[in-house]
Amino acid sequence: MESTNGTATGRAVTLRDVARLAGVSVATASKALNGKQQVRAETRARVVQAAEQLSFSPNTLAQGLITQRSGTVGLLTSDLEGRFSIPILMGAEDAFGSDQTSVFLCDARGDTIRERHHLRALLSRRVDGLIVVGARPDTRPSLGRNLPVPVVYAYSPSDDPADLSLVTDNVDGGRLAVDHLIRCGRRRIAHITGDPGYSAAQDRARGAQARLAEAGLELAGGEVWFGMWSEAWGRGATRLLLDRCPDVDAIFAGSDEIARGVLDVLHEAGRDVPSQVAVIGYDNWTILAANARPPLTTVDMNLEELGRIAAQRLFAAIGGTLGTGVETVPGRLITRESTAPLG
Amino acid sequence: MESTNGTATGRAVTLRDVARLAGVSVATASKALNGKQQVRAETRARVVQAAEQLSFSPNTLAQGLITQRSGTVGLLTSDLEGRFSIPILMGAEDAFGSDQTSVFLCDARGDTIRERHHLRALLSRRVDGLIVVGARPDTRPSLGRNLPVPVVYAYSPSDDPADLSLVTDNVDGGRLAVDHLIRCGRRRIAHITGDPGYSAAQDRARGAQARLAEAGLELAGGEVWFGMWSEAWGRGATRLLLDRCPDVDAIFAGSDEIARGVLDVLHEAGRDVPSQVAVIGYDNWTILAANARPPLTTVDMNLEELGRIAAQRLFAAIGGTLGTGVETVPGRLITRESTAPLG
């Protein structure tokens, strides 16, 4: 039988002792004693009784919580511009509660040695968990299975299926974009996108083509226009497209940068947007999308939501278990003025 | 006389003991024992002798350094997009040495309560120092004089003259931009800029006007066109400007965003850039400047350099003293294709 009086051993009673006596996880014991809503009344009563039995005082409780949770989470990123990692950081902080957890961001710049150094620094500061954010949605090496804290991979999935990864759903995003254009009555839809070496480019194109096929349509121009993630490619590809397929009535651009180039050349060619050609981008990078002329309809990857889910998974894993595999987070359509029903 | 055998007291010898015996600061003792170049040979010899005298072994040395320095610096930011803070973070890491110091970024989102919470979290992790980065180059409240570690304010200066602040030199930046246009042979130079409530807008305009005055020139259109930090304002102001002052031969835009709007309307009006009108932006925000048509000449604020200097000041302050007042970091001209000498 479990000892019911931790103090008799001369060792301070910890939350772990309370949890063991109550027959619950440490996370549940913590939630119960902190008055969180997720715990059933019956469970809470058992935990409180165990705490009393062990003379687990509020003061000891505070100390116990401190030893259980440091209130900090590390965010290891390789995203130089902070474009993807800042919204993920903000979402994670919102989920943890800004007054309870600080998220520390470290930038590894895609360098393995730097990443290892930051990892050691974060672990030596006893973070409660780690979120690893990649610069692109392609598989990255796992940090390994022997870390003392739970790790969630965000944006770039880990190559180890035993890890938990959260990624944006690019196939569904491509489908969303084309679905919107079809609902606007467009039938001659082209797709201009970035580097074919990125899974994001392949996945968005796959989703777009699947939705076209369901409507019995084919891509205008007969193929996906793969190229680069740049405005210049958006301009160049649009010139080629207008030449090959002058009656195109909608263009799905694989990024907002590309969409800016597309808009530029459509203006140059005297095509009205959206009445003659509808344009939709991807990313909802506000500086580019909201300032476009006309303001750009686009697909938002919901990175803040991804950050919130990462935080929830880490929180659940503290004292419990972390899931494995790849979870996808769907994007959402942001409608602005560059798309509209055919008149 | 100082005891020369710390171990006799039963207490572990620390770097502080070595420094005291050698008659140098802790920072100097640390540099001397780590083989850094900044220490004179004579000083180094004295420190090494003191270390030997106290049996300060390499192992004790490592422990001593750990108690002196944690190898982490906190970067508290309120810059939601990470636009200013990420390059400052990168510059600071470069100066510290990426394998020796990790910079932890926390985002306070301009919220005082959140900032206080992150500050406590960073201090409880025993960071060696703090860099506080604001979202705009206007004065911000000091974190106070009683912090246990040195603090450097970057981008936004502290309102307490006893603090050390590093800011970009916007007056000089405005001067740089106009100087370049004058060297390109331009005489009818207009200035379209952002919100007049920002010191950045006022300072850049002041520098521009000072340089014009030196050349015996006045602003084309007779005034600074203050408005908003947006492409839409760049477009609107350029239409007004072309109407009032059709022979303008150069436009200095107060940001790259504004410059994008300026370029857009010049194209629309059939003005060639740069042969008829030269355009220069501010910020060197690559996504906007390098992708513009033509690629945009602009002023770079040297934020990485600012981060490096902040790191050096913090490093010097550990075991020493931190300066006070406001230091300005000059910007530099990035020449691309939107400016050229008059043909």
TrEMBL record, chains A, B:
The keyword Glycosyltransferase does not apply. GO terms for molecular function: DNA-binding transcription factor activity; transcription cis-regulatory region binding. Pfam families: LacI, Peripla_BP_3. Keywords: DNA-binding, Transcription, Transcription regulation. The keyword DNA-binding applies. SUPFAM superfamilies: lambda repressor-like DNA-binding domains (SSF47413), Periplasmic binding protein-like I (SSF53822). Residues 13-67 form the HTH lacI-type domain. This is LacI family transcriptional regulator. The lineage of its organism: Bacteria, Bacillati, Actinomycetota, Actinomycetes, Micromonosporales.
